[in-house]
Amino acid sequence: MGNLIKVLTRDIDNNGGNFFLDFENAQPSQSETAVWEEVNQTLTEARLVLEDLQTYRGAGEEIRQAIQSPGVEGVQEKAWSAVVPLVGKLKTFYEFSQKLESSLRSLLDVLTSSGLTPTQHLEQKQSLARQFAHILHFTLRFDELKMTNPAIQNDFSYYRRTISRMRINNLSGNAGNEVNNELANRMSLFYASATPMLKTLSDATSKFVSDNTDVPLENTTDCLSTMASVCKVMLETPEYRSRFASEETVLFCLRVMVGVIILYDHVHPAGAFVKTCNIDMKGCIRVLKEQPPSSVEGLLNALRYTTKHLNDEATSKQIKNMLLPN
């Protein structure tokens, strides 16, 4: 695979991301191992977070009964007992978002450092590029699941209302005390966002740029635009696409492409939709629209509703029309 990548990447700096990035098998070199192992711990936890979120059923029925029978002590206790462990899970998800932010910064440190072009970084540090892709894939998957599960906010709102009532009545929350008021406020802001993990990554990338004034902004934006181009080219080139061992890698590539476009749009002052942008937005949207609608509607919605510059005057009518819901 290494020789294949070398052949494919000979002219990549002139080809705008026209090379194969091995999202399935890339392994770390010795110089990448320290960062790779740190990020790998986060990605291992990410899989558990997704499993927990996929099986999150909520306490809707118990809460409904508690609201309908406010004076019945047993019903209140049953709802409280159902909600407290769920809020423990929500706390875990929120705390994980901070680990994800830390891992993203570690990867950006390496992939935007001076001395190599963004394409050379992605070519020569494929295992770290692969981890960056996995973070984006997790982020969009988490947010898709969160958006389709209203129980999350309902459970947390009930928890906060109940805790407030306990304070007023000087009752102890016991098991509920694991989320103090300050943490509850931060969690509330996190879950109020339609796409909380994406917002975490966007804010973290913007902060990375503002904190590292010695690193030119283009180092970061070019890294993001190159990765978007690589994903688009791999998806639309049969020769590359045929190298995917699993059909799931197609959806993985699509999520990564959308993720880096959104990050780029939040970090670049002019955004991802202007003509001068290094990302072929029309090509990226076309690739998305060529997939089965059921698998990409969430990704198209992410471009429609979580980007910063789509509705700017500088965005062409053609791009806006391409992203109109059917």
Task: Provide key terms for this protein.
326 residues, mainly alpha, 16 helices, 70% helix, globular, disordered N terminus
Spans of at least 5 consecutive residues with low confidence: 1-16
Q: Level of helix content?
A: over 70%
Distance between the termini: 41 Å
Shape by Cα distribution: globular
The tally of helices reads 16
Main sheet summary: none
Strand content: under 5%
Using the CA coordinates, give the radius of gyration.
Answer: 22 Å
Helix-strand pattern: HHHHHHHHHHHHHHHH
Q: What is the number of E strands?
A: 0
Query: What structural category characterises the helix and strand content?
Result: mainly alpha
Mean pLDDT: 86
Secondary structure elements and their pairing?
Blueprint: H1 2-8, H2 12-15, H3 33-54, H4 60-68, H5 73-111, H6 118-124, H7 126-147, H8 151-168, H9 181-192, H10 196-211, H11 217-236, H12 238-241, H13 248-267, H14 281-289, H15 293-306, H16 317-322
Give an overview in words.
The protein is mainly α and 326 residues long. 70% of the residues lie in helices and 0% in strands. It is built from 16 helices and no strands. α5 packs across α8.
